[in-house]
Write a structure and sequence with these properties.
3-stranded antiparallel sheet, 19 strands, alpha/beta, globular, 3 domains, 12-stranded mixed sheet, 48% helix
Length: 608
């Protein structure tokens, strides 16, 4: 067996409340009803530090894969009426190992000790995945020296020359030498030119210390591929267990190979009983997740070619739920366009959710500025990230919040009309509701996605689009109690979780400046606050581990009543939601997932 590119450890409880990460070959503690595993890519921050994993780590990785496969197989055996599920969480850019572990411990504790609605249905396995991110290093002398030492010869020489020229300019100015002759004037121009070149080289050093591009490289070339390998290994392990259980008398190598082939045929014919695969992707973790799905997808599948991509991937998986929180991926992702490289991947999920907020200055400033260099767009607004989109029509009234398209769904989506046809007839278009704050010259300083992608929106105005597959939660004004599960701390008063919760139609430059101060001083987390609010944690984790239908069932036995309760909860806490027509048809009206998705895909295909 080839060397596995990751290390696997286990989540356990040292006591009833303290979650820990321990080695598989030597641990004590209680497992959760929802087993949890911490998987860390073995790729180092710098390639010079790369080395072969120890035999112990390799054995633990093999044991971890076998344990996960055993859990999934036992769940399918013990509860044949329910599918086993694998829920994977992926962190974002500029995240330390300690920070990642703390978040994943919170998730493990939440689903096992805090939320009985999740723990009472133990047919899931949780995996917290760590790819080799590193922290911003602007103030770390060691990192600065390392960055300077890594400069190629020409940029390094230009930087040193620029520094010398800056000193020379200062000295000459103090001695008034440039005012004495024409030669001194031209010499000053030459020194100034080299100073500018030196500053440009210094900017390269700063970009390295910000580590955005380094993290992007590691996410793409290590994080994505190592997660794909993990899923491939689990897939093979489950298939092998199926072969062993159905053909226990296979002894020779040929017989074992035939048993594996028949096991794969079994999984191909039992699509509804496959292992459900769900993801939580935060920030650059959304980029990792979506690219993993692109690789797992079979481009030669006839249903993909005919624009009806299947949910099945590999031998044993079925894509189920995708939860993106402040995803660091282009806003183009939810627009039907030739340039949308993720459209086919996103359509494969049965449920898709986007948590975003208008005030996410981490994406608005850092990510957008960094991607200005690389993203092939002529205009400023199209370079913004999906985590920055918001829902409009806010006037400060409580009625602006909640599920803003609920009346439209009740009115325009009768159960006897195909959902694709209903989308074409309704006046409530998701692209008209989503907007970006980007231009001070524009009225209200905003532009809707329908206006931003006017050509595509005009073509898509009478049909379902990729955007209709998503349910949106705009948390810009979300106000709630802060809840730290690991330390059992809850704030005394509700606060604006992600922003100052100003309830404005759109934030202005001063608001963004103040949010930058809040973020820099640690007053509020504008980028990851979804995992700090009491209600947002419940909403996000129940969607990830239960799905929308089962989440509604935890609120009320009547799903229509439960949907109204969710609407009122969001309204009270100043969250704007936009419910996917597909979710409404399946969870409220009782339509089948596959049938509803086929109706939407057919509507999209017929007009292409």
């Amino acid at each position: 067996m080839k060397q596995l590119p990751f290390i696997i450890q286990k989540f356990v409880f040292a006591d009833e409340s303290l979650a820990q990460i321990v080695d598989l070959d030597n641990f004590s503690g209680a497992e959760g009803k929802v087993p949890g595993y911490f998987v860390m890519s073995s790729a180092p921050p710098n390639i010079e530090d790369a080395e072969e994993s120890s035999d112990r780590h390799q054995q633990q990785a093999i044991q971890g894969i076998n344990d996960i496969a055993d859990h999934l197989c036992h769940m399918m055996t013990d509860a044949p009426d329910r599918c086993a599920e694998l829920v994977i969480s992926v962190h974002g850019y500029n995240t330390s190992l300690d920070g990642v572990q703390a978040w994943y411990k919170n998730i493990f504790k939440y689903v096992n000790r805090h939320d009985p609605a999740i723990s009472s249905s133990p047919s899931r396995v949780f995996v917290g995945y760590r790819w080799p991110s590193e922290n911003v290093a602007l103030t770390k002398p060691k990192k600065v020296i390392e960055a300077l030492g890594a400069l190629p010869p020409l940029p390094r020489d230009l930087l040193l020359t620029g520094a010398v020229c800056a000193l020379a300019l200062l000295v000459f100015e103090l001695l008034f030498l440039f005012k004495m002759s024409v030669a001194g004037f031209f010499l000053s121009l030459v020194l100034a030119l080299f100073l500018v070149l030196g500053l440009l080289m210094a900017a390269l050093v700063v970009l390295r210390l910000i580590v955005y591009f380094r993290d992007s490289y590691r996410a793409d070339n290590f994080g994505v591929l190592d997660l794909v390998e993990l899923l491939r290994q689990i897939d093979q392990a489950v298939v092998q267990r199926t072969a062993n259980s159905q053909f226990p008398l296979a002894v020779t190598e040929h017989e074992q190979q035939q048993a594996v082939l028949k096991a794969r045929e079994y999984w191909a014919k039992n699509s509804r009983n496959k292992v459900k695969l769900s993801f939580i992707g935060h920030s650059m973790g959304g980029f990792v997740v979506t690219n993993v799905i692109r690789i797992l997808s079979d481009v030669f599948d006839s249903r993909s070619i005919s624009k009806q991509p299947p949910s099945d991937v590999g031998d044993v998986y079925r894509l189920e739920r995708l939860i993106l929180a402040s995803p660091d991926i282009p806003v183009l992702t939810i627009v039907s366009s030739r340039a949308n490289f993720l459209a086919s991947s996103l359509r494969r999920f049965s449920e898709s959710y986007l948590f975003s907020n208008e005030g996410d200055i981490a994406l608005r400033i850092a990510s957008t500025a960094a991607n200005y260099i690389a993203f092939p767009s002529r205009t400023q607004a199209r370079g913004y990230r999906l985590g920055n989109v918001a829902l409009q029509n806010k006037t400060g009234s409580v009625n602006d919040y909640g599920l803003v398209n609920l009346d439209s769904l009740d009115r325009d989506f009768p159960v006897d009309v195909p959902v694709g046809e209903a989308i074409a007839k309704t006046k409530q278009n998701v692209m008209d509701n989503l907007f970006l704050t980007y231009d001070r010259v524009q009225t209200r300083g905003v532009v809707t996605l329908a206006k931003l992608f006017e050509v595509q929106a005009r073509r898509d105005s009478d049909r379902a689009t990729v955007a209709d597959f998503f349910t949106y939660f705009d948390c810009t004004d979300y106000t709630d109690l802060k809840f730290d599960l690991q330390n059992n701390f809850c704030s005394a008063q509700p606060v604006g979780i992600l922003t100052r919760a100003l309830c404005k139609a759109a934030l202005n430059p001063l608001d963004y400046f103040l949010l930058t101060l809040d973020y820099g001083t640690g007053k509020r987390d504008v980028h990851g606050g979804y995992f700090e609010g009491k209600f947002s944690q419940q909403l996000l984790y129940r969607l990830a581990f239960l799905g929308f239908s089962d989440y509604l069932d935890t609120l009320d036995g009547d799903r229509q009543v439960a949907l109204s309760q969710l609407h009122l909860d969001c309204q009270k806490l100043k969250i704007q939601g936009y419910l996917s027509p597909m979710r409404y048809r399946v969870s409220i009206q009782g339509g089948s997932v596959d049938g509803t998705k086929t109706e939407m895909l057919d509507a999209m295909r017929m007009r292409q």
